[in-house]
Write a structure and sequence with these properties.
Chain A: This is Carbohydrate ABC transporter permease. Chain A: It is found in: Cell membrane. The structure holds two protein chains of two kinds. Chain A is built from 16 helices and two strands. Chain A has a two-stranded antiparallel sheet with strand order 1-2. Chain B is flat. Classes of the chains: A mainly alpha, B mainly alpha. At the A-B interface, helix 1, helix 3, helix 4, helix 5 and helix 6 of A face helix 3, helix 5, helix 6, helix 7 and helix 9 of B.
C-alpha cells in the first residue's frame, strides 16, 4: 500500500513537471526551434517579400560567398569583436573576482558599497550604454582625456606607462595593462553580474574550512589561493561563459546583421551572417569551456 | 619586581624583555598595523571603484542643470553658475517624456510579470519535478542562452508579421496570418512562453534557487495534504522572494533599456528606449549650435532616461543586494 502511494506521488510529480515546463517548451518550439531551422533555410536561399507572405528561392552557398568574399566589412568586424572579447574577458573575470572578495568581507558601509557597485548592471545596459559611449562633454570635463571613443569617464593612465617600462616589463604587457586602465569604466560596468555570481559563491564557502586553515597557521593569502580559489573555480567557468555571451550580445557585427536585413532588405545574407556569427561564438565557447573545465575543482 | 629593580640600581635585561613580551602579547602591534593597513587599502580601493561608477552620473546631474554659457566658463567645474531647467524642459518635449515613460512602464511591468510566472514555473519544474528527459530539456535551456537573438531575428520578425498558430487563423479567415507588429503582443507572447529577453538566464536562476531550498519543506507540505500546485504557490514561492526580486528587477530593467526588440517589433511606438535611440538624430550639432550643445542635451536625455529606473533601484536594491546573500546563483 505504502509503496504504491509513493509511486503515484512520483508519477504525479512527473506529470506536474511536464505541466510546469509546458509554457517554456511551447515557446521553445514555436519561437526558438522553428525560427532556428528557418534561419538556416534562409541562409541558403534568396528571400523576397510578397504582399501575402514571402517566397524562397534556393541559391546554395551564394549568401555565404557574399559574406566572406564580397562584403568588405563583415570579416573585419567579426575579427574585431573576437579580439575585443579575448582582451576583455580575462580583465573582467579578474576584476570581478577581486571586487567580490572585497565585498564579501564584513565592514561598515558594505551595503552602500554593494548598492553602488551593482548600479552599472542597472544603468549601463542597452540604449543608455550606447548613448554614453563617445560622450563629448564628460570627457572634456575630464580634461586629461583625448580618447573619445571608449573612455568617457575621463580617467586615464598618464604616469603608469613610464612607471611600468621602468620596471622592465615588455611592451605588449604594458600596453595591455594601460589599455585596461583606460577602459576601466567599460570593464567595471560590464562585470556587475559576474561580481554577483562570485559573491554568492564566496558566501557559500563553509567558514569551517577557513577556521581549520587558520588553526594550521595559514595566512590570509594562502587561504585565498588554497581554499577560496579552488572552491569557486566552477564559478569562474560560469562567469567566463556568461562574459563571452554578454560581450557578443551587442557590437558592430550584430548591428551589421540587423541593418543588412532591415535597411538593405537582404534577408538571406543577413541569415548567413548570423549563422556564421553563431558558429564562431559556439566554437569559442566550446574551446574555452574545454580548457577551463579541465582545471576546475569540484568539491562534491 | 619594582623592588628588585630598585635594589639592583639598573634594569635587568631579562626583566625588560619580559615586560616587552608582555606588552607585545597584550597589544600585538604588528597584527594591529596589518589589520588597519588592510582596512585603509580596502577603503581606498572601494571608494575608487565607487567613484568611477558614480562619476558619470554626477557629471550628468551637473550638466543637466547648467546654462549654455556655463559650458564655456572654465571657472565652472561642478556647480553651475546660471542654474536652469531649460535643458530638461527641451528634452522633455523631444522625448515625448510622459507618454514614453507611461508606455515603457506598462510594457516593462507586464513583460516582467509574465516572464516571472513562466520562468518560475519552468525553474521549479526543472528543479524539483523531475520527469523523463527533464535533464536534456534543461540542457536545451542553456542552449537558448547561447544562441544570439540575431540568429533567429529574420524568422521571428516574419513570424509576427504573419502571425498564425499552426495555420488555424488562416484556416478560418482565409488570410495569411495577422500582423502583430506595432503592438505589444510580440513582447507579451514571447514573455508568456519564457522566450523573452535573456529568459534562459532567469530559468537558470530559479532552478538553482529552488534546488537550494531544503526538501523537508516540500515534504512537510505534502504530508499535511497539500497538492503540488498548492505547495508551489503557498510554500515554495514565499520562500523564493530573493530570487523573485532578482529576476523581477533584471527583467524589468533589461526590458526598459532594450532597444533591439523594440526596434524589431514596434519601431514606431513611443517607447523611452526608442526615443533615446532617436535623440542623437534630433539634436545634431548643426541644429542646436555645436557639438558641445549636442553633448549637453544627450547627457540630459540619458539622465532622464535612467531616472525612473534609478528610483526603482533605490527601492529594490535592498532586496536585490540581500538576495545575493541567500540566492543560489551558484553554478
Amino acid at each position: 500500500m505504502a509503496k504504491r502511494r509513493t509511486i503515484s506521488i512520483e508519477r504525479k510529480k512527473a506529470m506536474f513537471g511536464v505541466l510546469f515546463v509546458t509554457p517554456w517548451l511551447l515557446g521553445f518550439i514555436l519561437l526558438m526551434a522553428v525560427p532556428f531551422i528557418q534561419s538556416l533555410q534562409f541562409s541558403f536561399s534568396k528571400l523576397t517579400l510578397t504582399p501575402d507572405g514571402y517566397s524562397l528561392k534556393f541559391v546554395g552557398l551564394d549568401n555565404f560567398h557574399h559574406v566572406f568574399f564580397v562584403d568588405a566589412w563583415y570579416v573585419r568586424n567579426l575579427t574585431e569583436a573576437v579580439t575585443n572579447m579575448a582582451l576583455n574577458v580575462p580583465l573582467i573575470i579578474f576584476f570581478s573576482l577581486f571586487t567580490a572578495t572585497l565585498l564579501a568581507q564584513k565592514f561598515r558601509g558594505r551595503m552602500l558599497a554593494r548598492a553602488i557597485i551593482f548600479l552599472p548592471v542597472v544603468l549601463a545596459s542597452g540604449v543608455i550604454a550606447k548613448l554614453d559611449s563617445g560622450n563629448f562633454l564628460a570627457s572634456l570635463m575630464g580634461a586629461a582625456s583625448t580618447d573619445l571613443e571608449s573612455n568617457y569617464s575621463g580617467l586615464r593612465s598618464i604616469e603608469l606607462e613610464p612607471l611600468l617600462f621602468e620596471a622592465g616589463l615588455s611592451r605588449e604587457i604594458v600596453f595591455y595593462l594601460t589599455g585596461a586602465v583606460d577602459r576601466i569604466y567599460q570593464i567595471i560596468s560590464s562585470s556587475g553580474v559576474q561580481i554577483l555570481i562570485f559573491l554568492a559563491g564566496l558566501q557559500s564557502v563553509s567558514p569551517s574550512l577557513y577556521e581549520a586553515a587558520k588553526i594550521e597557521g595559514a595566512t590570509g593569502y594562502e587561504a585565498f589561493w588554497k581554499i577560496t580559489f579552488p572552491m569557486i573555480s566552477p564559478l569562474i567557468l560560469t562567469n567566463v561563459v556568461y562574459t563571452i555571451i554578454d560581450s557578443f550580445y551587442n557590437n558592430n557585427v550584430t548591428q551589421m546583421i540587423q541593418s543588412t536585413a532591415f535597411v538593405n532588405l537582404n534577408f538571406g545574407v543577413s541569415a548567413a551572417m548570423s549563422w556564421v556569427y553563431f558558429l564562431v561564438i559556439s566554437i569559442i565557447l566550446v574551446i574555452s569551456t574545454y580548457l577551463i573545465s579541465k582545471r576546475v575543482f569540484y568539491y562534491d | 619586581m619594582k623592588g628588585f629593580l630598585k635594589t639592583n640600581g639598573r634594569i635587568s635585561a631579562s626583566a625588560a624583555l619580559q615586560a616587552v613580551t608582555r606588552w607585545y602579547d597584550s597589544y600585538n602591534p604588528v597584527e594591529k598595523a596589518k589589520h588597519w593597513l588592510w582596512i585603509i587599502v580596502r577603503a581606498v580601493l572601494l571608494i575608487g571603484i565607487c567613484f568611477i561608477i558614480l562619476y558619470p552620473i554626477i557629471t550628468k546631474v551637473s550638466l543637466a542643470f547648467r546654462d549654455k554659457q556655463d559650458m564655456f566658463d572654465s571657472t565652472v567645474v561642478w556647480l553651475p553658475r546660471n542654474f536652469t531647467l531649460d535643458n530638461i524642459k527641451l528634452i522633455f518635449g523631444y522625448l515625448n517624456y510622459t507618454e514614453a515613460v507611461t508606455n515603457t512602464f506598462i510594457l516593462s511591468l507586464t513583460t516582467s510579470i509574465l516572464q516571472l510566472v513562466s520562468c518560475a514555473l519552468a525553474g521549479y519544474g526543472f528543479a524539483r519535478l523531475k520527469f523523463r528527459g527533464s535533464g536534456f530539456l534543461f540542457g536545451v535551456v542553456i542552449f537558448t542562452i547561447v544562441v544570439p537573438p540575431q540568429t533567429i531575428m529574420v524568422p521571428t520578425y516574419l513570424h509576427y508579421r504573419f502571425f498564425d498558430v499552426f495555420g488555424l487563423i488562416g484556416l478560418f479567415t482565409g488570410k495569411h496570418g495577422v500582423n502583430l507588429l506595432e503592438s505589444f503582443w510580440p513582447f507579451f507572447i514571447s514573455s508568456a512562453l519564457a522566450m523573452g529577453l535573456k529568459n534562459g538566464l532567469y530559468i537558470f536562476i530559479f532552478r538553482q534557487f529552488f534546488r537550494s531550498l531544503p526538501k523537508d519543506l516540500e515534504e512537510a507540505a505534502y504530508v499535511d495534504g497539500a497538492g503540488i500546485l498548492k505547495t508551489f504557490a503557498r510554500v515554495m514561492l514565499p520562500n523564493a522572494v530573493p530570487a523573485i526580486a532578482t529576476v523581477m528587477l533584471f527583467s524589468f530593467i533589461w526590458q526598459w533599456n532594450d532597444s533591439y526588440f523594440v526596434n524589431l517589433f514596434a519601431p514606431n511606438y513611443t517607447l523611452l528606449s526608442r526615443m533615446l535611440d532617436l535623440l542623437p538624430g534630433i539634436i545634431r550639432p548643426e541644429y542646436v549650435g555645436g557639438i558641445s550643445h549636442t553633448s549637453l542635451y544627450l547627457n540630459t536625455g540619458t539622465l532622464m532616461g535612467i531616472l525612473p529606473i534609478f528610483v526603482l533601484y533605490l527601492f529594490a536594491q535592498r532586496y536585490f543586494v540581500e538576495s545575493v546573500e541567500r540566492t543560489g546563483l551558484v553554478g
